[in-house]
Amino acid sequence: MGPLAIIAIVLACAAVAGVAGRLVKVSALFTLPIAISVVLVSVFTRAGTTVLFTIGPFDATLEGVEFAAQTVVRLFAISTAISLFGMTTDPRAFVLDLERRGLSPRFAFVAAATVEAVPAMAARAATIAAAQRSRGLDTEGSVLARARGFLPLIVPVVLSSLTEVEERSLALEVRAFGRPGRRHLLWAPGDRSWERILRWGLAVVLALLVVARVAGIVPGTA
Amino acid sequence: MLVLRGASYRYAGYAKPAVHDIDLTLADGEIVGLVGANEAGKSTICLVASGLAPASIGGGLTGSLTIDGEPMAGRPVHELAARVAVGFQDPATQRSGIAATVFEEVALGPMNLGLPAAETIARAREALGLLRIGDLAERDPSRLSGGQGQLVAIASLLAMRPRHVVLDEPTAQLDPEGTRLVAEALRSLAGTGTALLVAEQKTDLLDTLCGRVMVVSDGRIVADGPTAEVLGDERLEGWGVEPPSRVRLARLVQARGLDPALVEAGA
Ligand SMILES: Nc1ncnc2c1ncn2[C@@H]1O[C@H](COP(=O)(O)OP(=O)(O)OP(=O)(O)O)[C@@H](O)[C@H]1O
Ligand SMILES: [Mg+2]
Questions:
Q1: Given this model, what pLDDT does residue B267 score?
Q2: What residue owns the CA closest to ligand 1's atom 29?
Q3: Which of A18, A162, A172, B66 is deepest in the core (most CB within 10 A)?
Q4: CB within 8 A of B143, min separation 6: which ones?
């Protein structure tokens, strides 16, 4: 139940922030490559008693399907949570705040770059999809056709994001970003009291959940 | 003064060097142009001259980089950054991504240097003024045109008041007016004693900007000398570089049997 609850909460938050549509798309983009392999592997290789159907030497078991569904839902829950953070957090405020709390600017940048990568990746995926489509790649149509169209889409997205992060960190280093020592910050993000209360509240809830889980009050599986 | 001696550089994971035996001296106040065909090695030389290759991106360097008499081998990148500013081709990847306005973007470099806030602000204002982009100050840096982005990227470097500047195709995305502004800013920077290396495809820009031009072909420096001499060299097109329009016009005039001095006089 856990992951489904998380997805529901995240989607509700995303809807309030007005990014629900984009969030689902991006999360699907993150989840799909792993999901496909998980489904293929676990459906056919997981030992089980209830055989649903057979392809060649492989039996598809109900247990395998269950396991695959569970894993995919979990993956999706994780990516929606990360994507929501990326889409609703101002990376600049995030970096400055981390730095103000004594984190090294370098670490803060890595964190910010990760956050910023989410909308950037979504935008790039859309561009590349359009380009691939114009070259005749099927990104619409049947599920199978889409799955086949997916790989040529995701590979350039990931690769170009990686080189971009590398180039960008180079350009930042050139601007003395990695210099140790204090900086005199020109601006600081605002922090309202209800935001502070909410943050502490969430931290407490997280701690309680961990304790409950360890104590065995909350079951572990979905 | 920035000096490269016998520098050969190999990218990480590659067996063969991308550039060989590069000798390069940037005297204070000098603007040196670097031309060459695609893949000739301009960007690589920029990375080596700035110390980023190998300090930041790894790979293997033989030969030496010396800045103001001090060897740079083994120095951390932030120390190099305080001595050499480097600008890259693509303005999009030069954005920090952590500034909400152009002003903050330009102020980031001086801020990182640990300067007092008032000094940071003064430098950012000055750099924006130098490139006449003061009116972009409150804009979102991620929503600029390619040309505006390039001017902001250059302003961000100038705000650090570097003593040495390496620019890789700084005007690739600029219109003639933007190119002129950049040239003007670079000239005034050189006037304050800053040494500049400018890699460019646009020989017309180098023709008016540089005192000296170097040609790179296939990873090696094949010509190095006064601008007029190098850009007027008969072999330039053989190295894959289009001569500046002044030179092409003079040749055209000469081929028609007219007096090339007419063109020179007009130029
Ligand atoms: N990151 C890299 N890793 C490995 N090899 C590289 C890398 N960047 C460039 N090279 C190689 O080094 C050589 C010189 O490339 P470089 O980018 O320096 O040329 P350039 O003159 O800047 O070309 P352009 O005009 O296209 O920008 C080329 O053979 C190129 O393939
Ligand atoms: Mg280049």
A1: 47
A2: B39
A3: A172
A4: none
